[in-house]
Amino acid sequence: MLNRKSPPAIFQVQNLLLPRPELVHLDNGIPVYILDFPGQEIVKIEAVFRAGRPEESKRLASRATAKLLREGTRTRSAAEIAEHVDYFGGSLNVPTNLDSSNVILFSLKKYIHELLPVFAEVLQEPSFPETELETFRRTSLQELQVDLEKVEVQAYRKVTELIFGENHPYGYNSVAEDYAALTRDDLVQHFNTWYTPSNCMLFASGRIDAPVRELLNRYFGQNTTKGPTPLPLPVAATSKPHKEFIHQPESLQSAIKVGRRLFGRDHPDFNGIFVLNTILGGYFGSRLMTNIREKKGYTYNIYSTADAMLHDGCLYIATEVSKDKSAATLRAILAEMKKLREKPVLEDEMDMVRNYLLGMLLNGLDGPMNIADVVRSLVVEGLPWESYEALVQTIRHITPAELQELAQRYLRPEDFWIVTVGA
User: What gap in Å lies between CA 108 and CA 112, rounded to an integer?
Assistant: First the structure.
């Protein structure tokens, strides 16, 4: 009989093998990374263009261009596109991305022949109607106005500006004047320059049989327009880290951001930082959460994250607290960083974090859509296939001494900007 008084046994995650995609090229040279799962009756097609902030000639051009792709084409209005996709049970998504423009189509296998032509038209013949651009400006300004009333948003905007610089693609903050300055010509120029076959990658997952491949080649493989080489990224800011306080008199809470510049996933220390950040504040059982939320009761939520962009990266700690607890919370954050620099992590904690991270990676390999996301990240960031296994091995085998060395190198308080927004 089932004994409900005893928990099930806990087993180590053993096999984490990332399936290798099949790489084919369309007639015009577009690479297509295929993950074919014959048992699935769903298809996911993701088009990726290196057309993000680093490629902009005008602020917000990349975001506006991506958002307006599905708002009308040469032959269809935005409503007609939405109605067609919805009628056949599909989904057309444009997630926000700093480094690239990603457009994703989900479709049942039996309707891919109905949806793929519309998907191709959206990516090849957008019309960027003035009315839709004006709607984008208006809604974006309304969202910006609401966001700027939030201390957390203000703190994030300020700390990234300090880390990278106010004119850097990763550091500049959108303001009302940027939206007002956008014109349809800016979007058309950005699209014509960067949305070209030579700057495109396709990722196909699910049931990708011969008919689907033929459709991809028919609708994406015939355009031979060439585009320029992606631009080099401007140099990030080099100012000395310091503290900044932004007075927000009507705020009931204060937002704290403690951040520093780091690096992308191709850096030799990134995998170790990935583990170290998890211990510090990367999951619910982290040190920041255990001490500052559970023991001290200063906040409902506190976390740290290691953001890796294509050309750079940053590490920051974030929380919101009552204004009378700001100083104490900041001291507690710095104290947790100090502990990691001065004392090795105990094995019990190491085991917990290893199991958590391996379980998270295992979840990322659950099904063709999740696997496609992992593959796309590796390809877009130019990482070798072996880098996934290298991350797994780092999680399994990194030692407390190695983590302490990383903490001594990257968790020094003098390297961090500290931003507080509140009353």
Answer: 6
Distance between CA atoms of residues 210 and 224, nearest Å: 23
Q: Distance (Å, rounded) from C-alpha 115 to C-alpha 421?
A: 47
**CB-based burial, 158-176: b 16+ in 10 Å, e otherwise:** bbbbbbbbeebbbbbbbee
| Separation CA 351–CA 336 (nearest Å) | 19
Q: State the pTM of this model.
A: 0.92
Nearest residue to 244 via CA among 313, 321, 173, 162: 162
The answer on 145 and 106 residing in a single domain is yes
Q: Which of 10, 9, 17, 11 is nearest to 362 (CA)?
A: 17
Residue range of the domain that includes 166: 22-220
**Bridge-partner residues for 321, per DSSP?**
254
Q: Tell me the C-alpha distance between 206 and 386, whole Å.
A: 23
243: its two tokens: 């503290």
Strand positions, DSSP E, 267-348: 302-308, 313-322
Same domain, 216 and 250: no
Rounded to whole angstroms, the Cα distance separating 155 from 253 reads 12
Residues 263 and 149 placed together within one structural domain of the fold: no
Q: How confident is the chain (423 residues) per 10-residue block, as mean pLDDT?
A: 78 84 96 94 96 94 96 95 97 92 97 97 96 96 94 96 94 95 96 95 96 97 82 73 91 95 95 98 95 94 95 96 94 97 96 94 91 95 94 96 98 97 89
Structure letter (DSSP) for residue 126: B
Longest dimension (CA), the chain: 71
- What is the Cα–Cα distance from 74 to 121, expressed in whole angstroms? 8
In a domain, 120, yes or no: yes
CA–CA gap between residue 67 and residue 98 (Å, rounded): 13
| R_g (Cα) of the chain, nearest Å | 24
Containing H/E element for 101?
strand 101-108
